[in-house]
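User: Before I run my own analysis I want an independent prediction to cross-check against. Here's the chain; please return only the C-alpha cells and, at the end, one sentence I can use as a sanity check.
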Amino acid sequence: MIKEDLIERAIFCKYHQIEPSFVDLMEESGLVEFIVINEQKFIHHSQLQQVERIIRLHQELEINISGVEAIVHLLERIEQMQFEISSLKNRLSFYV
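Assistant: C-alpha cells:
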C-alpha cells in the first residue's frame, strides 16, 4: 500500500470539520475501515467517496449513525439489484 493513498484521520476530520468521535462511530459500525501505522489512523483514498457521503447524510440531513447504517445498507442492496437486473437483461437479450 502506498502512503500517498492514505489520509490521516486528524487531517481528514479537520478538513471536513467533524469530530474524531464521529469517525470512530463510523469505524465501530463497520462503515469505514482505518489503517493503523505507527499508532496513527489513516483512511484509504478508495473510501473517501463513501465516507464523505456518510458525513453529508449526518450533517445536512441530521441523520444519526444508526440511520446512516440503514441507508448505506439499502444503497448497497440497490446497487447489487441493479447489477443483477443488468446481468439478467444481458442474458435475456441473447434469446430475443
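Sanity check: The beta strands are 6-8, 34-37, 40-44.
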